[in-house]
Amino acid sequence: MDRDLYKKILEDHRELAALPQTLAEVLRVIKDENSSATDLADVLRRDPSLTTKMLRVVNSPLYGAGREITTMTQAVMTLGHRAVSALALSTSIYHIAGKWDTTIDRTRFWRHSLEVAIACREIAEAIRYNCAEEAFIAGLIHDIGLLVLERSFSEKFARVWLEAERGESIFEQEERVWETNHARIGRFLLEQWNLPEVICQAVGYYHNQFSPGNNEPEFRLPQIVALADIISRFSITKAQPNLSLEQDYKEILCTNLKLDPHRLVEIEKTLFGKTVQEASFLEIEIGSPNDLMIEANQLLYDQYLTVEKLLTENNQLHEQIARDKLHKAALETLNTITATFNHYINNASATILGRAQLVEVAISKGQVKDPEGTVDMSMQVIVNGVSTIKAVMEELKNLTSFDTIVYHDDTYVIDIEKKIKKQLESIDQIKPVLS
């Protein structure tokens, strides 16, 4: 199904098949181990608008060059091939995708994408990943498949997006409709653009559910993107995430990546400010300062409500545990009392039965006159009565051996009652053995 879908996308939108010539040349130069800073600078200079943007970015406080950079050659030599290439690709892809006609809220989309990109770079640097620039690019375009799907299948996507806004998993909805998802679509697109395979894999696999202990090198960057996606609070949809599930998965990814949780907290603390700052330098539209503050306040309030809910659930759990302990203590007390009752009733029953047997023997020897059998029948009634008492006490004893959940199960209690009645019926059917 994937290949047919991808083929249709390319047939409908042939402009997606390749990057603009300048960016294609940038990638070619990056892959060429023998290329120089001058080679890369020459390629970038072919696009005057890109050159202007790049020089403005590399001279920003964000990169702290320490001196004014006036040429692309200086920019490449100062920041390095990878850093300059990452900036060129990131800013260009942002403007390329910006021309696509979709109904997804672009401001929210790029706000989330840039936040994930910055988080990817910060995490990569913290764990000494060999190329933080790759992580930044992968984070920035990790959801680009959404734009492709929405552009190619607008009506179907609108229904899928509506469910996602209501809190349903976007990936599950996509699998149901197209038997694929936007991560795999994104990977396919990036492969058409000849981006490095490590970036393509990161975009294609980032949504995978990575298990504890997964330290395979090929899944290192996808897990960086996955973790960055979790800590991003500027989501594309308005649905609220499940923070408890996210926290568990965050711990797994931190362990897999060997990232100190305290370091991750520091990254999260500064993520908002860096996103706003870098959006300005990169000229990526993420909303006005007022919009951002409203969004941030709403996020803070939502998190407050989530914490309040968790505290309420925690208190309820403690109360339930206390009740369960009380029930258990009551059951243990009942068990002791029942065992004591059984002891005395068994002794009394044995005495009664012994006396009844003596009377029956006396009747059989003629020592007690019972011409009408009245005494014998009375003894039989006494014996049956004692047997009934013993049967009830035995079931009570069995009942106290179960835990409180079973003890309070109405169905089980009804079954016990039926069992006792059945035993009593069998006792009532016993015929006198003496005449």
What descriptors fit this protein?
single chain, 435 residues, mainly alpha, Hypothetical protein af1432, 20 helices, 0% strand, elongated
CATH topology description of the largest domain: Hypothetical protein af1432
Distance between the termini: 89 Å
Major sheet details = none
Helix content: over 70%
Beta-strand portion reads under 5%
Overall pLDDT confidence: 79
Q: Pairing-aware structural class of the strands and helices?
A: mainly alpha
Overall number of structural domains: 2
Number of strands: 0
Any guess at the CATH architecture of the largest domain? Orthogonal Bundle
Number of helices: 20
Full CATH superfamily name of the largest domain: Hypothetical protein af1432
CATH class of the largest domain: Mainly Alpha
Point out poorly predicted stretches: 430-435
